[in-house]
Amino acid sequence: MTESLKTEPLKIALAGLGTVGGGVVKLLDANRELITRRAGRPIEVVAINARDRSRDRGFDLNRFDWVDDTTALATRSDVDVVVELIGGSDGPALTLAKATIASGKAFVTANKAMIAHHGLALAQAAQDAGTALKYEAAVAGGIPVIKGLREGAAANVLSQVYGILNGTCNYILTRMEAEGSDFGDVLADAQALGFAEADPSFDVDGVDAAHKLSILASLAFGTRIDFDGVRLGGIRNVLGGDIAQARALGFCVRLVGLAEADASGLFQRVHPCLVPLGHPLAHVQGAMNAVVAEGNFVGRLFFEGRGAGEGPTASAVVADLIDVARGEVGPAFAMPVASLAAPETADAGARRERSYLRFTVADRPGVLAEITAAMRDAGVSIESMIQRGEAPDGGVLLVMTTHEGPARAVVAALERLEGSPSMTGKPMWMPILDV
Amino acid sequence: MTESLKTEPLKIALAGLGTVGGGVVKLLDANRELITRRAGRPIEVVAINARDRSRDRGFDLNRFDWVDDTTALATRSDVDVVVELIGGSDGPALTLAKATIASGKAFVTANKAMIAHHGLALAQAAQDAGTALKYEAAVAGGIPVIKGLREGAAANVLSQVYGILNGTCNYILTRMEAEGSDFGDVLADAQALGFAEADPSFDVDGVDAAHKLSILASLAFGTRIDFDGVRLGGIRNVLGGDIAQARALGFCVRLVGLAEADASGLFQRVHPCLVPLGHPLAHVQGAMNAVVAEGNFVGRLFFEGRGAGEGPTASAVVADLIDVARGEVGPAFAMPVASLAAPETADAGARRERSYLRFTVADRPGVLAEITAAMRDAGVSIESMIQRGEAPDGGVLLVMTTHEGPARAVVAALERLEGSPSMTGKPMWMPILDV
């Protein structure tokens, strides 16, 4: 490409003008001069599409060509890149992605669900079409962690990647921690403040974090995305009492997405965990996100920043656009799709770790003997035990930590206790992060 | 480039086989298969040069062509990239850099001093020759912070970039903190353990951190590197008592490299600072490095990892090589050299901040009145004062923090007190990080 061609603007079509789409327009306006210098040429939105043309978004829509048919953006001859900010793993977003790539244009998205479910097929299509698929904004908002793993840590065999991947859950857990309150109260408040959706399931049940984790695992290990292989646990059953007891033991509670790869296969899990107070993840407060990667030469890398919202997500989208403008666009998952390995799913039951167990029990003799017998019979070794505090259901909180042992032993002990009249509620299990 | 050409190995000449050079060879051996998949082709060292051919480096040198003349690496027809790990801002490293770029080959280096002093000239030469200059390993070891600023945060106007850029100083300060010991004792121990050089000046006087800061500032702000504009202060005069008093006030002491750009110009400083205990930099222990960048859309980004050593530095060097193999090699400082601005140096005296001041004074009446009068006359407003603890010289430690005010007022107060018989030693000033 000659220098004169390079000063042509990179022309963008934008599908979706919600919080993030509006943020992209505002960012490109506010930082225009610097972005032009960094990208080597201007980046200009030429066409837009959204559900509602009449809504006030704080900027003049008439500067752009309004397009009613989302998919029509893909074939416009005046567009170099389509940016998809509609959301949803299938539907119009996926149709647009396929059409854009088929027409040989670059495709940039913040859509974690679509990448988790269809990322490999889209990457293969982009590879075949010789164009770019970029999705920095899909994981951990403004933190350049896709780039950090795909390029920054590329020289390393990574053994683990893990982190705090959902700002809503971290906001709720750190507020429960600060206020000593229970999940339901904080969720209602978070919804009122806009930190949680009206239907919070995707966030609080761990699905959103699992989307992101499956993408990070692919980049970290050079494996095919395996969203269905992620073991899922959410934060609905974390009590204020769990957080208080964890703190007394030297831990805080965080929703941790963790992926590991070794000879036994790929292990992926999103679950509330006990994190040692000295660990970098313990300092991650509110709606922040953070990612840790462990490499065989670099050691531990830690990235932290804002995981969502207009500014941070727009920052990641435009970083992708600058890469496209610079022509720095290799394979979406760091290597050709055919080179990605398809590992076995690791046997989760064989994984050795320490556990936190909390029972809500009736306040009567013999309960402790029953529980400890179940542990003994299942081969679970108890490290510490606290019987203190009241559960919301009026029962007594009984908290244990175990020595390191296979997860299946703990599962067996809990199964054995299921339905026992001594239990006033369902037990809570949380792994202890030992890294 | 066709697919078949891409499977040709990327051929490397390596100058310097010390800790980092040896690490690069070991890393390319250990992670060969994964790197080939990620880079799209093998990366192979073909020629090497070092001072001493006979030293045992833990691998067989005979696999490589040994070249006695360093500069001859630059013109070998079987080499695509020269990796320079000799060190030194001038001399053979610079000669090799110029010769490599002049011959149109890519140049990868870990040499912060050379980049700080000659980076712009080398970048211009690389631009003219249409080749790549890459230096991820020059700043913060294994942390991909050059990439993080150059690409990850590229969409943002950054107002600040700061961090812990020298592992030796952080090792010394955090050991002083943990042990309550003084600088000299810990330095001697750090030297014995290999965490500090026999001549520690470059590290403990802040020069090394200033090299790195000047590079980060250029990337962050789109400005020309201005190493001479960095205000320098080292850690030699930090007392164990300073760290104890800072802790009592809610701070720890870190050597912080800080760069800011605004309408008044570019401010760059390396100096021991008081860091609030809740700030991410306060958790950075031992020889770790960390960098914070504040962007107008992304907010605060935080990167942490190992700042030096064989593995982390080799990780960064090979990340650059993978970028070169992938063809992802834009301008060295994110934009053409001619586009880099040449800002005024900000008036450091006008900068408003809070300060920590420590005096070692004779234990007699009137000293406090003398000091507070000097503060009053210079217009410095005192926020808190502690007179407690003994200085190593037998004097009393008198510690103050000031309200926010212009730095020149504090300088004037200290000048006024200079030579006063009440002072048993030189006062220590440290800014308080208020970000």
From TrEMBL, chains A, B:
The annotated active site, in chain numbering, is K212 (proton donor)
Enumerate the UniProt keywords alphabetically: Amino-acid biosynthesis, Methionine biosynthesis, NADP, Oxidoreductase, Threonine biosynthesis
Q: What is its EC number?
A: 1.1.1.3
Query: What sort of enzyme, by top EC class, is this?
Result: oxidoreductase
Residues given in the record as L-homoserine binding sites = E197
Q: An example of a Gene Ontology BP annotation on this entry?
A: threonine biosynthetic process
Pfam families, per database record: ACT (PF01842), Homoserine_dh (PF00742), NAD_binding_3 (PF03447)
How far does the signal peptide extend, from start to end residue?
none
- SUPFAM superfamilies recorded: ACT-like, Glyceraldehyde-3-phosphate dehydrogenase-like, C-terminal domain, NAD(P)-binding Rossmann-fold domains
This protein's pathway = Amino-acid biosynthesis; L-threonine biosynthesis; L-threonine from L-aspartate: step 3/5; Amino-acid biosynthesis; L-methionine biosynthesis via de novo pathway; L-homoserine from L-aspartate: step 3/3
What name goes with this protein? Homoserine dehydrogenase
